[in-house]
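2024-03-11 09:14:02 INFO receiving multi-entity request
2024-03-11 09:14:02 INFO entity count = four
2024-03-11 09:14:03 INFO echoing inputs for audit
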Amino acid sequence: MSINRELELERPIQDLRHETLLNIVRTVSVLSIKGEMFFRRYGLTEAQFNVLFALKYKKKKWTQSDLGKRLVVTRASITSILDRLESKGLVIRNIVEGNRRIRHIELTPEGLNLVQKVEPIYRRNIHKLLSCFSDKECLEIIKYMETIRERAMTIPY
Amino acid sequence: MSINRELELERPIQDLRHETLLNIVRTVSVLSIKGEMFFRRYGLTEAQFNVLFALKYKKKKWTQSDLGKRLVVTRASITSILDRLESKGLVIRNIVEGNRRIRHIELTPEGLNLVQKVEPIYRRNIHKLLSCFSDKECLEIIKYMETIRERAMTIPY
DNA sequence: TATAAATTGATTGACATCTAACAATTTGTT
DNA sequence: AACAAATTGTTAGATGTCAATCAATTTATA
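2024-03-11 09:21:47 INFO inference complete, emitting structure
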């Protein structure tokens, strides 16, 4: 349904670019609600899953700062997410020899186990959701999003 | 930059549809950070602006429930946003004759004033951000987003 | 009409997020 | 080597968000 109909506005939004932005943001709102519902079944939030997922696929050892940069959240947020994941025994903050300031974050076996269980189901849902698009269309969406991100990060707001 | 490079993953994500989803979500993350920075200049959060904006363009009188439905947030969230907007004197909860359960939410003159001041500047920023796309491309993005939203709302997760 | 069901707004507790500040530590510069 | 600057993780306080629950009220049904 169109944004204008969903919002039931008197004067529909006449601004195509504003409408474009609203559409993207609103879509993520809807996806996020669905995502939270899904992850809750496994005792996780979306943010917590994102951390577990990143840790599973990471390259080198990652600090909390590294995690924050990759996931585009502040160090403070990472601290609070890790507190919860650690208390559930899903991750561990390892002391780093030679640098007493940082911690290397790793999945515990339980953490790895959980991601490995949830990820394929999550992925199936994503496939169901986006099965209507061809590979070419997916690439096109990705291109659009990369362009917007690139511009958002460089253009002064 | 590509999601795989941004995340610096060992094994890049091989799943085109997952990558598509990550791209959309991540784009909104970035936009949201920029948006919050922008609205803070006017003493607002993005959620607060969204409420003011919706109230400016609404058709009939809206209750808090109405607002929640349009903005895709729960009644509890609306309550807390309105508490803050009301304490700043930007909106008012009007008693409704004939139905003592509901409230009609309206902009105060100050609220209207503020939206009218912020909106055109916000809109200019959006134009700057999306000026690289033709109208046709915008329509294409909108179409993609509407399709995803439609499917997300109907497909069981 | 009387009772059951649904709706509305508020509240509570949990979580994610931000900014700002802080202490500890590391890195860079003179 | 000594001092200044930057980085790291944490904390506190603010805000938004949700689910669950509640009381008040309205609507629907028996």
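2024-03-11 09:21:48 INFO post-check: The radius of gyration of chain A is 19 Å.
2024-03-11 09:21:48 INFO post-check: The mean pLDDT of chain A is 92.
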